Amino acid sequence: MKKHNFNAGPCILPEVALQNTAKAVIDLDGIGMSVLTISHRSKEFEAIMDETKALWRELLHIPDNYHILFLGGGASLQFCMVPYNLLQKKAVYLETGVWAKKALQEAKIFGDATALASSADKNFTYIPKGFKIPTDVDYFHVTTNNTIYGTELKEDIDSPVTLVADMSSDIMSRPVDIKKYGLIYGGAQKNVGPAGVTFVIIREDILGKVDRKIPTMLDYRTHIKEDSMFNTPPCGAIFTMRETLKWVKSIGGVEKINELNKKKAQLLYDAIDSSKMFVGTVEKDSRSIMNICFVMKPEYKDKEDAFMDFAKKAGMVGIKGHRSVGGFRASTYNALPIESVQALVDCMREFEKQNA
What we know:
By secondary structure, this protein is α/β, with parallel strands linked by helices. It folds into two domains: about 240 residues, 3-Layer(aba) Sandwich (Aspartate Aminotransferase, domain 2); about 100 residues, Aspartate Aminotransferase, domain 1 (Alpha-Beta Complex), CATH 3.90.1150. About 35% of the residues lie in helices and about 15% in strands. It has nine helices and 14 strands. Helix 2 crosses helix 6. The mean pLDDT is about 95.
């Protein structure tokens, strides 16, 4: 039976990226060694690193005055590195979910960090609006897509101060105006590769403005100077990232990916909105095109487990909602084909036909 992978992360990856990685694990380009065992200082891996960075720059139109780093520790380590490097006096955060809250919690260790606006009052089912960004802060931090709750900032904010964004789960899913940001970071395992590598896109002029001494490994300038080679990088994960980005380029780039992602999301949202049994959990103007959350209507709440079993037998994988929200979540990341979304829609309709 065909499996339809809706996991929120690690994510579905392009088949070509998986096949090429599998070959490289055994023998990289016929050199007689695995990508997992070659030296990160070898000409073969340096070529992989250079091409991966070039693909990032090309696909997102990253200006020359931005550095692209590949680090370890996931986005969670960036929750600490951002304030360590940028927070001198004060920072503000847009609190839109669990990960935004965790980022804010880390920042409070380093200085005056507060939530500028929050959607906690409605369990993070919307993106706050109408807030005014103060000009007396070191930076403003946003989480552009909230995987647990299914909300997304779909436009790049005009900020009077340095704008920092966690784009773990929607990077490469839509065009981004990089120039509006001072720093963008995220774990690769939502859209651009496997777990184990973290991307950072950073404008160097925002650094060097804090008084505190920063540990070498946590200083962005260390990794800029050493070209992401201060310590051994996650070579295998970077290889798979390269293969994933090559696939994105081959099908028309981020602009084309965005068109496809919108179609996939609309197909599922239309099915939810027209259903007698299912209902969305997010305000419509805040809906994510990456993570689509829905539940059973109250009168059918007792059928949630039955639907999970029904869907599993139909090949659906990873549609159980996060434990803090419940219900269901379908993550429609870049590599998920629209045929999988149609299969989920058909599954929902068949279950409704039999049970509503």
